[in-house]
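debug: dumping io for the single-chain case to check the tokenizer round-trip. Nothing else runs in this session.
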Amino acid sequence: MIKTFVNLFKQKDIRKKIFFTLAMLFVFRLGAGIPVPLVDTDALLAGVADNSVLGIMNLLGGGALQNFSIFAMGVGPYITASIIIQLLAMDVVPALTEMAKSGQQGKRQLDKITRYAAVFLALFQAFTLTYAFDVNYGLLQDPSVSNFIYVSVVLTAGTMFLLWIGDRISSFGIGNGISIIIFAGIVSRIPFTFANLFNTMVDTSSNAALFSGVINFLLFTFMYLAIIILVIFMQKAERKIPIQYTSSNLRKGKNDVTYLPLKINSASVIPVIFASAVMTAPATAFSFFSQTQGLYTFFNDVFNFQKPLGLSIYAILIVVFTFFYTNLQVDPDKIAENLGKQGTYIPGIRPGTETKEYLSKVLNRITVLGALFLTFIAVLPYVLPMITDLPNTISVGGTGIIIVVGVALETMKDLEGQMTQKVYRGFIN
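debug: decoded output
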């Protein structure tokens, strides 16, 4: 890993992409610290800390929400719009379904529609968040209609500017731009999370309490590292299906076995991001109600990760989105067709329909394991404060770990691919 990282900077083109990505992330972090005009965020800080839904939104935005900066909503509206469009494209709206099946041209059209939908959702979410925060925390210095509209437009513009930054990173930088932005936001919050956790767990009133607090903090740190190792292991785990060639001239030797790799977690971090976005979206539904009203209490109980009902809904959504996105990423029918075209087959399985059914069966089985793994890691930090004396500040740790590790692995894989491609080009030339 370290050798690969060093070699990356030896390639001029890759080095330029890395520095360009870092420059874009600097702009993102700079904007995350610029508050929206006409607002007062003093009371908002405590509200974000006490609300698990707002905590997730703050996590995905890299702390921009608690400052109510121009990037307060992050890329959440785009993620929500992407979920809606992908669901509608699954034989719900025929026009969208045709676009999804039309290759790269259709994908570009779907992405264009998704962005228009993201603008609408961003405007709606910006207005409702502004109204909710003003009702509950006295956000606006002057709560007039013009100020509501002004703040909403600023927040929407900030979200669309983030999407533009993500596009620049995808085109001229490294990795997926949207994922990189979320990654940078979460990483920027890790030092503050550990600092708050240390201050909460370590009591300096006596030597005995200090020693006990430090031990507990170190144990938590080791658990954190163990979870990271587990996430890395599961993200790289594969189910290898042996395949053979029918042509005699392509027949492999006994010791040279060819495999069809299927990742245990083909969906990567996307289900966690989707589930988090879906859970935070209803915040716009109960944002019109004051905290003293019964409807607010009801919605807050349903979508609160720190309560059993909300946590259960979050876990179910992760499982559902894992299967949903895995089916989008891996098509057994297409794999079976490609195997037939290449003159290969799975030993003991007839080509065609039987191969498709076998691949579907294997994929569903390993997806169950992947979904349970994602759910366990994401839910664990919320369960621990319920059964122990650990503070609620660790609650966003599991979601953050999955996203950070997943994006980091995908980005390194992309960089290694670019470096290998560069080597091959040099060899050919």
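debug: round-trip ok. The longest strand covers residues 238-245.
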